[in-house]
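4.2 Preliminary Data

To establish feasibility before requesting continued support, the project team ran the inverse folding procedure on a target of 399 residues. The structure was first converted into the token representation described in Section 3, and no sequence information of any kind was made available to the design step. The complete token record follows.
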């Protein structure tokens, strides 16, 4: 299942330059499975046309109360969530004051679904006492405010007021309708990416992990309403919006960050590709080539994070999902890892499979639980797999 399958989203676009990004948001919502109804305010139409949104959503776009007089009640009633992006200072003010003088405000006043607001305006407008009061009022009444970010604005100004990027808004919209997930309110710690073992000030031993699998898991857990701590090594994939993210480099740093996060954790998902070896001695200055000479590097085992946290996890009853990357006897080795590392679930990857593993968009895993139940999953995008894995975690938590 995609995260928005069967969900109806009402996207209200008000008139700001960021409205062009709302077309991308509509596209992302559709890709995630949502059906999207769009309302454009009169001034939004000056920035983007209804045709653009009709093309993307394959549904009629609504612009006036007078097109279909009862549309405002119908649109609000059938939406699972409403998102206003961009939400201009004017729109925020009108929503805060309960105005109902166009289709957007009438519909939102009549809707009883969660509302997500993505403000976009000039910094001085965002920081004005009137806007602060309006935003606080809307927040107190249950609206989720996403952003705004800091960056380039219209008129070549730079500051706070830039509408959040579509992935960030998408995540907030997902989280706003995540009621009912067994993960809601739980604290999930996710590790991701590679670790590096330095050998001198400029070189390190690393691996090809991009972080994408772990980031997909952290994003999906956050979208389901969990409080998420992401501990990541230097992966090159884009960090997910939402989770509290801690950047680390070495296995030792990752161990320290995980130990700290575990004091409040309910679930640990160990998706990081932690280096197994590190240099016994890290040279203080750059190792020079000696003419024709070979270099002997003495390596020692890096800390095994799952083994080192076994006691603390058992004591706190932390549910743990680990990964195993195998080339031979994948299942048998995975089974042993699950026992040795004290896991409740293990996702076993075959490192020789081109559709799974490091730095590819897809993954295929065999999922094994403590009782020995095995589920062979098909090749899935890492995002889809993340949702399937969390479905299993939720299944176990609910029993
Ligand atoms: N792991 C860990 N600390 C390490 C190495 C791995 O916590 N130093 C975790 C990984 O994040 C993963 C699980 O242990 O969830 C299995 O990782 P994998 O690399 O498959 O196993 P290893 O323990 O490294 O064993 P081997 O290399 O012998 O297969």
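Position-by-position output of the design step:
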């Amino acid at each position: 299942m995609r995260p928005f399958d069967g969900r109806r989203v009402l996207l209200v676009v008000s008139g700001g330059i960021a409205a062009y990004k709302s077309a991308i948001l509509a596209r992302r919502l559709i890709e995630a499975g949502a059906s999207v109804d769009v309302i454009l305010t009169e001034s939004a139409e000056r920035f983007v046309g209804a045709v653009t949104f009709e093309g993307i959503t394959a549904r009629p776009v609504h612009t006036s109360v007078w097109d279909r007089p009862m549309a405002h009640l119908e649109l609000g009633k059938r939406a699972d969530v409403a998102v206003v992006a961009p939400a201009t200072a004017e729109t925020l003010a009108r929503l805060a004051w309960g105005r109902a003088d166009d289709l957007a405000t009438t519909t939102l006043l009549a809707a009883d679904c969660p509302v997500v607001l993505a403000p976009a305006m000039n910094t001085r407008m965002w920081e004005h006492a009137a806007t602060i009061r309006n935003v606080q009022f809307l927040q107190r009444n249950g609206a989720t405010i996403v952003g705004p970010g800091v960056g380039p604005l219209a008129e070549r100004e730079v500051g706070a007021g830039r509408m959040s990027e579509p992935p960030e808004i998408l995540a907030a919209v997902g989280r706003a309708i995540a009621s009912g997930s067994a993960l809601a309110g739980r604290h999930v710690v996710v590790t991701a990416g590679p670790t590096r073992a330095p050998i001198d000030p400029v070189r390190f031993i690393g691996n090809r992990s991009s972080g994408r699998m772990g980031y997909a898991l952290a994003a999906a857990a956050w979208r389901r309403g969990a409080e998420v701590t992401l501990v990541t090594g230097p992966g090159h994939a884009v960090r997910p919006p939402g989770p509290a993210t801690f950047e680390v480099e070495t296995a030792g740093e990752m161990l320290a960050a995980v130990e700290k996060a575990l004091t409040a954790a309910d679930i640990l998902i160990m998706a990081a590709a932690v280096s197994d070896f590190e240099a016994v001695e890290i040279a203080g200055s750059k190792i020079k080539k000696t003419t024709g000479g070979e270099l002997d590097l003495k390596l020692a085992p890096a800390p095994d994070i799952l083994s080192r946290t076994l006691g603390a996890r058992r004591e706190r009853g932390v549910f743990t999902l680990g990964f195993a990357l195998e080339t031979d006897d994948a299942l048998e080795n995975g089974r042993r890892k699950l026992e040795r590392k004290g896991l409740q679930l293990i996702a076993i990857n075959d490192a020789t499979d081109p559709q799974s593993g490091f730095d590819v968009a897809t993954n295929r895993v065999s999922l094994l639980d403590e009782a020995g139940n095995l589920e062979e999953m098909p090749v899935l995008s890492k995002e889809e797999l993340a949702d399937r894995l969390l479905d299993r975690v939720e299944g176990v938590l609910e029993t």
